[in-house]
């Protein structure tokens, strides 16, 4: 067992974890943050995307011990109380989901991407979101939502 | 999928890491950014007893200039390389190759050193460092040694880095003013190259004064397209001349056959992608 201290969605947690525990399992099983999901388990789909110190990472491809001393933001920490983050609101407004399984990862990647590129072109959005797979929507409304959020200042928040 | 249990060590200095590796010998595995090792551990293709994480060793991170050389710490992430103006100015080819690696999330964690030691023949970093005549600095129990890129990649997933050793930094000669292009051929985005070509060119007027060309996934290791490089020297940067020189790009290669294409298809791709990469690098 290893002792870790991680700030997740603004709250600091100290836990003993097995070294082999993946960050996504720590978030879901130890902290109950089941908003972050496992889609592929092969690091391809991006469904498990969270922010580590503000940058998007695939939480199935990291050990919980690697997050020791760092700050994690999940989809559950994005909204401001009852007010959705602009990217969440844009996904809602643009109907950017069907089954919704890819959505937490899509939104976490979109928020990270918009921080680096607040005024992207459509092509840049498609390239920026290439690590996230969606089996339902055909991506068009997802791209539209990210562009709409950029228009709403989604990148600056 | 969950890895087999292991002990985890997170040293904060290179000396501590080397001591840990010396103590645990073949039972130990180095962890860089984890973007290749984590999938390996989860699929249980490897089950080390001890994992030595380099992630907390500051001295292995960062980019600096040393005269005519750009020095990149092994644990520098792809994202940090992409954001670095020195790299863009002096070793543009590395920037262009890394921009094509995987996706944003992987580039936030994956490291240049990890990619080079992993030595996947389809990897994008290998051909760039090979074309740029980089040198790798390796630390081990007996001190440090430097290995040129041409001798570094020894076989499929095999490099000059031995048991108990750590890749410390990559030294890349500046190619200031050279044009550069990385031409990657894939079926769908964020995939490994079916074939890719790294090209950097020093043009004088409309003439190719010098060209360096390396190939991904055309054999067990990244390969230089030597015959093409020689044929390009002194040629005008025109479609006709570059096409002729690129026809020998697959000479001496031994590409794999798999679901994405057989060896002959890859040989053909190598010539087409070389032409595109060289023309783009020469700015025509
Ligand atoms: C979905 C996905 C898509 C990908 N697509 C691409 C792609 O298109 N192109 C591409 O090039 N790569 C791709 N990759 C691989 C990615 O580039 C990896 O990050 C990289 O190969 C390994 O770097 P790392 O720092 O994560 O190393 P790790 O995974 O930590 O380590 C890889 C290997 O190197 C060893 N190692 C690491 N650092 C050192 C060191 N300093 N000294 C000694 N040994 C060390 C480890 O022991 C291990 O054997 C992809 C990965 C994934 C998961
Ligand atoms: S579950 Fe992590 S990338 Fe698919
Ligand atoms: S909405 Fe179903 S996977 Fe994207």
What this model shows, in words?
The complex is a heterodimer of chains A (157) and B (284). Chain A has 157 residues and is of the alpha+beta class. Chain A folds into two domains: 2-77, Ubiquitin-like (UB roll); 86-151, DNA polymerase, domain 1, CATH 1.10.150.120. Chain A is built from five helices and five strands. Chain A has a five-stranded mixed beta sheet, sandwiched between helices. The model of chain A has no long low-confidence stretch (mean pLDDT 96). Chain B folds into three domains: 7-53, Uridine Diphospho-n-acetylenolpyruvylglucosamine Reductase, domain 2; 62-173, Uridine Diphospho-n-acetylenolpyruvylglucosamine Reductase, domain 3 (2-Layer Sandwich); 179-281, Enolase-like, domain 1. Chain B is globular.
Notable characteristics:
heterodimer, A: 157 residues, alpha+beta, Ubiquitin-like (UB roll), DNA polymerase, domain 1, 5 strands, globular, B: 284 residues, Uridine Diphospho-n-acetylenolpyruvylglucosamine Reductase, domain 3, Enolase-like, domain 1, 3 domains, five-stranded antiparallel sheet, four-stranded antiparallel sheet, binds flavin-adenine dinucleotide, binds FE2/S2 (inorganic) cluster
Which cofactor or ligand species appear? flavin-adenine dinucleotide, FE2/S2 (inorganic) cluster
Helix content of chain A: 25-40%
CATH top level of the largest domain in chain B is Alpha Beta
Question: How much of the sequence of chain B is in beta strands?
Answer: 25-35%
Query: How would a crystallographer describe the biggest sheet of chain A?
Result: 5 strands, mixed
According to DSSP, the number of beta strands of chain A is 5
Most extensive chain interface and residues per partner:
A-B, 33 and 28 residues
Under CATH at level 1, the class of the largest domain in chain A stands as: Alpha Beta
Helix and strand sequence of chain B: EHEHEEEHHHHHHEEHEEEEEEEHHH
Q: Give start-end ranges of low-pLDDT stretches of chain B.
A: none
Radius of gyration of chain B: 19 Å
Q: How far apart are the first and last residues' alpha carbons of chain A, in Å? A: 37 Å
CATH third-level topology of the largest domain in chain B: Uridine Diphospho-n-acetylenolpyruvylglucosamine Reductase, domain 3
Q: Overall pLDDT of chain A, averaged?
A: 96
Q: How many strand units of chain B? A: 14
CATH topology of the largest domain in chain A: Ubiquitin-like (UB roll)
Shape of chain B: globular
Poorly predicted regions of chain A: none
User: Hey, roughly how much beta strand do the residues of chain A contain?
Assistant: 15-25%
Structural class of chain A: alpha+beta
Biggest sheet of chain B, strands in spatial order? 4-5-10-6-7
């Amino acid at each position: 067992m290893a002792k870790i201290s991680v700030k997740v969605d603004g709250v600091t947690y100290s836990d003993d974890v097995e070294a082999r525990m993946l960050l996504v399992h720590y978030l879901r099983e130890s902290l109950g943050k089941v908003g972050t999901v496992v889609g592929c388990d092969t690091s391809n789909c991006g469904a498990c995307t969270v922010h580590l110190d503000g940058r998007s990472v695939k939480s199935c491809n990291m050990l919980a011990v690697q997050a020791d001393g760092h700050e994690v933001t999940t989809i559950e920490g994005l909204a401001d109380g009852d007010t959705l983050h602009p990217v969440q609101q844009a996904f809602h407004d643009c109907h950017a989901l069907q089954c919704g399984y890819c959505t937490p990862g899509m939104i976490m990647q979109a928020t990270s991407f918009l921080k680096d590129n607040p005024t992207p072109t459509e092509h840049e959005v498609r390239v920026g979101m290439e690590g996230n797979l969606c089996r339902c929507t055909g991506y068009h409304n997802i791209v539209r939502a990210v562009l709409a959020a950029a228009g709403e200042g989604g990148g600056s928040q | 999928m969950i890895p087999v249990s292991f002990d985890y060590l997170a040293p904060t200095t290179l000396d501590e890491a080397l001591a840990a590796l010396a103590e645990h010998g073949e039972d130990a595995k180095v962890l860089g950014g984890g973007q290749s090792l984590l999938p390996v551990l989860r699929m249980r293709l490897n089950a080390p007893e001890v994992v030595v994480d380099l992630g907390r060793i500051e001295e292995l991170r960062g980019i600096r200039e040393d005269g005519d050389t750009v020095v990149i710490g092994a644990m520098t992430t792809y994202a940090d390389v992409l954001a670095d103006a020195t790299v863009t100015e002096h070793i543009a080819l590395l920037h262009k190759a890394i921009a094509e690696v995987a996706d944003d999330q992987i580039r936030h964690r994956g490291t240049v050193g990890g990619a080079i030691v992993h030595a996947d023949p389809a990897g994008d970093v290998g051909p760039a460092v090979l074309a740029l005549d980089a040198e790798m600095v390796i630390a081990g129990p007996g001190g440090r040694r430097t290995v040129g890129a041409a001798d570094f990649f020894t076989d499929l997933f095999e490099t000059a880095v031995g048991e108990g050793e750590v890749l410390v930094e990559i030294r890349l000669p500046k190619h200031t003013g050279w044009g550069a292009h990385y031409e990657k051929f894939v079926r769908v985005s964020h995939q490994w190259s079916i074939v890719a070509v790294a090209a950097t060119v020093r043009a004088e007027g409309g003439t190719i004064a010098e060209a360096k060309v390396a190939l991904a996934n055309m054999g067990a290791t990244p390969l230089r397209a030597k015959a093409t490089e020689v044929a390009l020297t002194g040629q005008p940067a025109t479609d006709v001349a570059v096409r002729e020189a690129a026809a020998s790009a697959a000479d001496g290669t031994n590409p794999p056959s798999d679901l994405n294409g057989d060896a002959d298809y890859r040989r053909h791709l190598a010539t087409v992608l070389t032409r595109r990469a060289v023309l783009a690098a020469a700015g025509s």
